[in-house]
Amino acid sequence: MRDVDLPLELVLCRCEEVTVGEVLELVDRGITDPNELKRLCRIGMGLCQGRTCGAALESLVVRYTGKKPTEVGFLAARPPVRPVPLVDLAKARDVDEAEFSDPH
Ligand code: FES
Predict the structure, then answer these.
(1) Which class for 51: exposed (0-12), middle (13-18), buried (19 or more C-beta within 10 A)?
(2) What is the number of structural domains in the chain?
């Protein structure tokens, strides 16, 4: 494995308090798939759902293992892509289909 030149206590996922050290410990055990890492240490399971920390996780694994990004893979996106207030979802039910397909 390569030196990533990052402090092990650096937090990758603020909401689940997952550090670089925790992730690298799992990678050292042979786990490099971002979705498997997510299941094991909860990175990407917080408020951002991987929109912020997902790229950091993928980049860390790529740098540490020396693999190509396509070999490492990507964190699976989970809907909703953005937080949506429930009131907006309730309103969307009443939107006319023509109005919905033409935003202008
Ligand atoms: S920063 Fe915690 S889920 Fe992304």
Answers:
(1) middle
(2) 1
